[in-house]
């Protein structure tokens, strides 16, 4: 192992391993430190995303959606499937196989690119030194010219609902149920809560979601959020807004939760409870006192637009810095930082980061909401188009939802795109590209879209910005 590195990355999640690989591709001698270990004592790469986050949850979401389709929707398209059941343990085993394949793949990528993998818990002890403590408690110090902190985040715990293995769990524990609970409580109607609630609702749980806020998905455009809430309730999710949890008690095999809402004090009993109230940066103990790297009261590391900390040779990316806690945001920051360390000019457009909720239908958005634009004094014009009028959506038996394009009323520049519908997470890339290249709504309207596709709804929404949607009645006439 080298005595000194050009760059050491702490954390091998989507931000860290991508940054280390990019650095190596740019000709730098790179190392990545990872504390997560397998049963045989080897480093496990991929961080929360690959191991207990994005990937395993999507495996369960896809499996549970196919189950619901087979059980309830196949008959609509002429398929007689008979009595359909779900083997939860087999579903979980498949999820684990996917995780193992991907984490093993990352290990292969690191090796193929010449990145040194160091097992242990990393700590920045000076602007040029990283201390790594292995699982036996032995500490080693490595010299480096640059450090990238990519330590990620962990679920937030709240005092009213202390975790208890198998009964009151966080998002990680919710991915490990070996059977479907009859009554499932979910605290938090955010992205993680809605996704996990959807999985177990599809598999037969009576799911109640308790959300302290009064507004459903406030980060999503108002019209899209309203429709999403309506669709999820139709599927059976009991979403209770303005419900602030005040306590919980485990009684035998049940969890009794107390909360307050507009009607006063309430009580509800569950078999399992998932706490999904957000995540917090994992930075405690990652940076030694006296190094000079500044953090805020919540533990986020202060960085500039290029992810430089207050110490010139130390960078920080991903969930432990400002901005959305998203794997793809972390990865792009990792690439940017590696390029900067290699001597290149690099930047990232934080206004063009897509967000996706992988319920069914999916919810995806990028850029401003109509409400946000108006609050900033920006006059906007919008266009929407329902999937109910889409030929491909009809053929797919997926007519729920709509696409919405938001443009500047004066310049016609696209400010945001919001979609609720099948494959919204794939379609939102069109909005990202539009924002990245400063496209106008007219640019989208003049683009030739393949027919029949779900993406034609985006085309029609762009046309509708000027009232020219072809496949929607009561459109405006050209002046």
Automatic annotation (TrEMBL):
Q: Binding of FAD: at which residues?
A: 58, 122, 319, 325-328
Per the record, its GO cellular-component terms are: cytoplasm
> Which InterPro entries does the record associate with it?
Class-I_Pyr_Nuc-Dis_Oxidored, FAD/NAD-bd_sf, FAD/NAD-binding_dom, FAD/NAD-linked_Rdtase_dimer_sf, Lipoamide_DH, Pyr_nuc-diS_OxRdtase, Pyr_nucl-diS_OxRdtase_dimer, Pyr_OxRdtase_I_AS
Recite the UniProt keywords alphabetically.
Cytoplasm, Disulfide bond, FAD, Flavoprotein, NAD, Nucleotide-binding, Oxidoreductase, Redox-active center
- What cofactors does this protein use? FAD
UniProt-listed PANTHER family: DIHYDROLIPOYL DEHYDROGENASE (PTHR22912:SF224), DISULFIDE OXIDOREDUCTASE (PTHR22912)
Protein name as annotated: Dihydrolipoyl dehydrogenase
Which lineage do the record's taxonomy fields give for this organism?
Bacteria, Pseudomonadati, Pseudomonadota, Gammaproteobacteria, Oceanospirillales
Q: Which gene encodes it?
A: lpd
